[in-house]
Prior knowledge:
- The protein is an all-alpha fold and 140 residues long.
- The chain has five helices and no strands.
- The radius of gyration is 15 Å and the shape is globular.
- Keywords: Cytoplasm, Deoxyribonucleotide synthesis, Iron, Metal-binding, Oxidoreductase, Phosphoprotein.
- InterPro entries: Ferritin-like_SF, RNR-like, RNR_small, RNR_small_fam.
Amino acid sequence: MESAWWPLPPWRIFFSGSFAAIFWLKKRGLMPGLTFSNELISRDEGLHCDFACLMFKHLVNKPPKETVISIIKNAVEIEQEFLTDALPVKLIGMNCDMMKQYIEFVADRLLLELGFSKIYRWRTLLTSWRTSPGGKDQLL
């Protein structure tokens, strides 16, 4: 059971930057087919991660807090490095620093969902990064 949990929550972090970049396209009315499929994939991946977090809460022998934190931090570092390479220039409403903050925000939300405390401590997500109607971010 423990090994089934591990791959899913870090994927929420790994997908978050790419999903956010595609939602940025949607906000500008670009590539409607891609942005629609992204909404569906984002929703499904969110459900997978929610289920993994629920499974984690039912584990009898949970991994140590330090192990979970280490996995989350490593996922954040990998995703931030990838997006720094993938997004080398500033765009209107998006740049590397904002994307790094967003990834840390997603990681903190994931940690809370797993029953741990935030480590990056971003209080809020910029309203321009809300990705779906009603202000609920499907990536989270």
